[in-house]
Design brief:
By secondary structure, the protein is an all-alpha fold. It has one domain (about 1-89). The chain has four helices and no strands. α2 runs antiparallel to α3. The longest helix is centred in the middle third of the chain and has 32 residues, at about 40-70. The chain is elongated and about 50 Å long. The N and C termini lie far apart (about 35 Å). The relative contact order is 0.13. Keywords: Membrane, Transmembrane, Transmembrane helix.
């Protein structure tokens, strides 16, 4: 049962998830603007701007395809096979 807790924690951060790609895009767009600020205000601004976007847009969007795996209904390999079969049909 511990694995599923880990999976739920790791999925949003992953490439398929939300945190990493959205944070990367945010830094690419606003990194130079925020660079002169000290670390604490930079992190505060980033989290204030990104948390609502992550919670209401990207996490639900990215978690939907991973749902069966996160609930322990299928393995990762079976999930990828199912997606591949759906695209071929």
């Amino acid at each position: 049962m511990q694995f599923w807790r880990f999976a739920r924690a790791a999925a949003p951060w992953s490439i398929l998830g939300a945190f990493f790609p959205v944070s990367l895009v945010f830094q690419a767009l606003f990194g130079e603007v925020l660079a002169p600020l000290p670390l604490l205000p930079r992190v505060l601004i980033a989290t204030l701007m990104l948390t609502p976007v992550m919670v209401f847009v990207f996490i639900p969007f990215s978690m939907r395809p991973l749902g069966p795996w996160l609930r322990g209904e299928v393995t990762v390999l079976a999930l990828f096979r199912r997606r591949l079969h759906q695209r071929r049909a």
